[in-house]
Amino acid sequence: MSLIVEYELRTPILKSAAQAAEKLQIEELYGSQAGTTKLLFWAFGDDFAAFEDALESDQTIENYTTLESVGDRNLYGVTLTDEAATKLTYPLAAEYNVALIDITVSDETVVSARVPSRDVLLEYRERCLEKGVGFQVRRMYHEHEAETKQYGLTEHQREALQTALDRGYFDVPRAATLSEVSDELGISDQALSARLRRGQANLLWHTIADDPT
């Protein structure tokens, strides 16, 4: 099961420019045919003239282009300097099959990523440190834990619903009885029935109810 990791990178990239915006949201990173490294990102704020002055003075940026303006955010494309490009951790992420989910730059550069395992995380972190990029883990959780929290389920309710679904308890006709599922979970029929009812109620309140709580 995937491990979701939120971590802070201590990198100079866009650090100076970010001080003039509410936050920066990285959209894309790619290499051009000319061999340069480019970033696409949304800048959020209310003074883009000041932010663009900050882009001009940021030592990690070679040049920039304003691509789109939507309300309180602008989309920019920037070319990084060659020196700044050496601090990118994206190539290492690809090497270790770390899937980047979200990158936000404000006072810190905070990354959310899907990591194959804790061992891979440790190796990836060590390689980032070798590049001179600070790396601090903020929190870790398994993917299903995020889903459980989102839909108001307890861990036991999630486990009961998942097992019942896998065993065909919800199929028509049913492929497994309540007793068969409860035996697999090591609980009584009554306890399983209660978990399923409460779990289904939580799912409904957090999905289709008009006024979820």
TrEMBL record:
Listed InterPro entries: BAT_GAF/HTH-assoc, HTH_bacterioopsin
Pfam families to which the protein is assigned, alphabetical: BAT, HTH_10
Protein name per UniProt: Bacterio-opsin activator HTH domain-containing protein
Residue span, HTH bat-type domain: 153-203
Species the sequence originates in: Natrialba chahannaoensis JCM 10990
Keyword terms: Transcription, Transcription regulation
Keyword hit for Transcription: yes
Domain Bacterioopsin transcriptional activator GAF and HTH associated: 13-120
